[in-house]
Specification:
The complex is a heterodimer of chains A (about 350) and B (about 80).
Chain A: E1 2-7, E2 9-18, E3 21-24, H1 34-44, E4 48-51, H2 58-72, E5 82-86, H3 97-105, E6 112-116, H4 122-133, E7 141-149, E8 167-176, E9 182-189, E10 197-198, E11 216-217, E12 223-224, E13 230-231, H5 233-255, E14 264-267, H6 272-281, H7 293-296, H8 303-310, E15 320-327, E16 331-338, E17 343-344, E18 348-349
Parallel strand pairs in A: 2-17, 2-18, 5-6, 5-7, 14-15
Antiparallel strand pairs in A: 1-9, 2-8, 3-4, 7-8, 9-16, 10-13, 11-12, 15-16
Chain B: H1 3-11, H2 36-50, H3 56-61, H4 65-73
The chains are: A alpha/beta (about 350), B mainly alpha (about 80).
Chain lengths: ~350, ~80
């Protein structure tokens, strides 16, 4: 487990964009009984989600978010030294979407860019990369885009993910300043669980074929093909509740803080049942926990920044924010930062 | 926790199935109310009451409540 401390680095601005199309869980009666839907909503909290149109990509949502930061804060295009695009739904297999974004946003030609394939821990992994880059004296501002259009990778008839996952695009700019003080990261990877959340086909190992696109009925009654997301929900839950509270405890011990000293908890919006259980085990005060799953579902790596944007009025300057996420693999971690004077912008629609 | 208490505690995780339907030899996966969400409740209950981790694969590997109880005891 990596435990890392940084000083005087923090988030300068955060923005988020969701698609305008609302998909209400209770209207999915074509696929599920009303009783099944009610139980699902009650357990997960997902009342509705946003889905992109077929011609929209995660990068379109992120592009709009980035423009908002340039329009509404004092951060300028020429300030950006590095850009990371973190997603499981890039525009193309080649080239990386971060390269496309450099040109589309009009960033400098000496901008360093990377595409990163991370799942629900994408934001905290992106933060760690940005904080690390900012240890380089000549790097002063790093933009991290976390966006996913998982609606393009799910079957609506999948009992696990069909009612759960949604789309969003977020952008954060990370910079330097004494106002941010100390930040703490704990990062872990346990890659022996890849079968728990996986898209099996469509990559280089099992290329797309008529066979991989054939819809099949699975043991639990779900109908999906091999190019759509499989999530073994009970195994994700079992793993998450065993490791996440422990990771939160270790990170807080490393930081020399108690959970009562934390102002805000922004945990990955996996589903309410899991998030609430993890929070309870970690002894987090429910009043300090932010939620956004009701309106947007589980939006993978975007869920923490989206949650911060959705709850922007609850976050005050210099609040300490505890973040925790777990994603496919599993890759998971916990982060404690001071939000400083971060500009958290109003949510946008595309 | 004894088997009898475990069966009672298991039954509490179900909203609609009458408690008297739960016995040590009940094949829990054949209950109408059994599903992915009740599975999560059982995993959480075992975590809370026994401080032990059971997986979805564990739940799939047993049939009756007594078999599940024994599996937990052997963890």
């Amino acid at each position: 487990m990596a435990l890392i401390k940084f000083e005087n680095v923090g988030i300068r601005a955060i923005s988020a964009t969701v698609p305008h199309r609302v998909v209400k869980t209770r209207e999915m009666t074509e696929y599920y009984s009303e009783e099944e839907i009610e139980k699902f909503v009650s357990a997960t909290g997902v009342e509705e989600r946003r889905f992109v149109e077929p011609d929209q990509c995660a990068s379109d949502l992120c592009y709009k978010s980035a423009c908002q930061i340039f329009d509404e804060t004092d951060i300028k295009r020429e300030d950006i030294d590095a850009l990371f695009f973190i997603s499981q739904t890039p525009d193309y297999k080649i080239p990386g979407t971060s390269i496309i974004m450099q040109d589309k946003l009009g960033l400098r030609k000496d901008t360093i860019v990377y595409d990163v394939n991370m799942s629900c821990s994408g934001f905290i992994h992106g933060l760690l990369m940005a904080y690390s880059f900012l240890q380089i004296p000549t790097i002063n501002n790093v933009m991290i885009m976390v966006g996913d259009t998982l609606s393009k990778m799910i079957s609506l008839k999948d009992k696990g993910t069909g009612k759960l996952l949604g789309d969003a695009g977020t952008v954060s700019v990370i910079g330097k300043g004494a106002q941010y003080g100390e930040s703490f990261f704990s990062m872990c990877t346990e890659g022996d669980n890849i079968e728990t959340v996986i898209v099996k086909a469509g990559g280089a190992r099992i290329p797309s074929s008529p066979e991989t696109l054939k819809m099949q009925e699975w043991e639990d009654g779900s109908i999906r093909n091999l190019e759509q997301i499989i999530m073994v929900g009970d195994d994700v839950f079992s793993f998450a509740i065993s490791v996440l509270p422990r990771d939160i405890k270790r990170l807080l011990e490393f930081a020399g803080k108690s959970i009562d000293e934390v102002d805000i908890c922004a945990f990955h919006q996996a589903n309410n049942f899991m998030s609430n259980y993890v929070a309870k085990k970690a002894k987090a005060d429910p009043a300090k926990i932010l939620h956004s799953i009701q309106k947007y579902g589980n939006t993978a790596g975007t869920s923490i920044p989206l949650c911060l944007v959705e709850n922007r009025e609850k976050i005050k300057a210099n609040n300490s924010i505890l973040m925790n996420a777990i994603g496919a693999g599993f890759a998971y971690g916990t982060v404690l930062i001071n939000i400083g004077d971060c500009k958290i912008l109003q949510l946008q629609e595309l | 926790m004894e088997l009898k208490e475990f069966v009672e505690r298991f039954a509490e995780e179900f909203d609609e199935t009458p408690a008297e339907q739960f016995k040590a030899d009940t094949v829990f996966k054949s209950l109408d109310e059994w599903g992915s969400l009740t599975a999560l409740s059982i995993i959480a209950m075992v975590d809370e009451e026994f401080e032990k981790r059971i997986t979805g694969a564990d739940l799939r590997s047993v049939n009756t409540l007594e078999e599940l109880y024994n599996l937990i005891q052997n963890k």
